[in-house]
Amino acid sequence: VSHETRVLLVGDPVLRVSSCVTDISMSPDGRWAIYVQQSIDPQATAVKIIDLQTSRSWTAAVFEGAEPIHLRSAWLNSNGKALILGSRWRGSGLRARDQEHTLFWVDASTRRARHEKVEGQTLGSFPEIYPNAHRPVVVIFGQRVELGTPDEGRRILSEEFVFQVHKLDGELSSLHSFVRETSGPINAYWTNSGSTLVFNVLEKGDQPMNTAFQISDGSLDISRGEFRPTEAAKPDFRLDYRSRESEHSRRTALVKDLWLAAEPPTDEPSAYLASNVELAELSADFRHILYTVEGMLIHRRLESMNLTEFREQQINADQRSAMRSAADIGRGAVLYWRDNGEVFPSSDTFFKRVRPYTKRDESFENFVQTFAGGPIVLGVDTSRTSLGYIDAQFGRAMVMLDGTISWRWKPARSGRTG
Question: Exposed end of the chain (fewer CB within 10 Å): N or C?
Fold first, then answer.
């Protein structure tokens, strides 16, 4: 997959976890991943960390019950430290009671993890995490909802806006936390300098509240701010889900395929990765892809290469392959000519008759015979008269009557010499 001046080459898939993976979160450098794995007997959900270089994993926490855990994550760059918020509904269907949240502080490099319950209930949506790209600080936003009893019809008694700031430098510590009544959604963004977080929320009475948080070393100042979110820069590559219909056991099902594509889309082809994909992540440095298929956790490495260099390698590989096949056919055709009264076979029998004299069936792919067959007319220069050619992407590998070969570039590359 190419984008402007570089191209990504996709490596082979490597199975990291064999079953029951329901959620994933990969570190920006693609070294570590946190995943959720469910077990049936006994019914439990485990949060685990895996080293994607060695496939070694360890368990950070185990929770009883079959309810799946949904991860919100904030990784620090390249050192294996992360703050993970795991949320799940307690109960199922109409019997679901409320959301339960657990905060994980993970240091994957030293195999340490600590977790603690987050007080309060959240209704309607999972909390959002806003990691700071410039400082080891993470902000968690959420709505805490107090519900009445089932007998009261589960009515909402109160709604509060919950704001927490956590510092991830060394050990986890809370810088600030406060609660405020709210009735609307929360939106937030960091300024380009990474020192100020601006958020917008509707308070009671539907009046917007714009507040800026100035974060410095070990302290946090609150002041009024103006909510002007800046558009984030789009990455050069993205994962793309594409649905298609597939027939299986006389039934038509909708299958979700995963592709790696350039952003914005180009005329260059995308790279197909897998079918039946449930979850997928592309690392921030575009060197790793992590995805799940039927509960299996699969990892692929990506190699970045200069586009010009890659094109040259493509051209050279195309030329080498065609010339190798041409040499095989030329040698076999001359041997056949000598054994059969110095007569070449016609185009409709060429493969059948010359094949026993060659090394590979693949040599005949894209071969076009130009010599009609039969004996060579007296006076013909066999080194300059074509027996046929192999049509390649960037040129043609020519086979002469005497078995010699040469390369001719296609018109678009006529400036090249072969």
Answer: C
Distance CA 73, CA 84 (A): 4
Which has the closest alpha carbon to 118: 66, 83, 80? 83
- Integer Cα distance of 17 and 279 in angstroms: 14
Task: Name 346's Cβ contacts closer than 8 Å, sequence gap at least 6.
Answer: 372, 373, 374
CB of 134 closer than 8 Å to CB of 193: yes
Nearest C-alpha neighbor of 10 from the set 231, 178, 261, 217 = 261
Q: Exposed, middle or buried, 282 (CB in 10 Å: 0-12/13-18/19+)? A: buried
261 Cβ neighbours under 8 A, 6+ residues apart: 1, 237, 238, 239, 240, 270, 271
* 103 within 8 A of 74, measured Cβ to Cβ: no
Whether 97 contacts 90, CB under 8 Å? yes
At 220-231, the pLDDT tens digits run 566 655 556 566
Whole-angstrom distance, CA of residue 357 vs CA of residue 351: 10
Q: What digits encode the pLDDT tens for the residues 118-138?
A: 655 554 455 677 777 666 677
For residue 208, which of 161, 243, 246 has the smallest C-alpha distance? Answer: 161
Distance CA 163, CA 209 (A): 14
380 phi, psi to nearest 5 deg: -75, 135
